[in-house]
Amino acid sequence: MWNPRSSEWQPACDVLRAFDFEPIALKAKEGLALINGTQLIASLGAEAIVRAENCVRAADVITALTLEALRGTYRAFQPEIHAVRLLLLLLSSL
Question: What residue segments make up the domains of the chain, in order of their start?
Answer without folding.
Answer: 1-26, 37-92
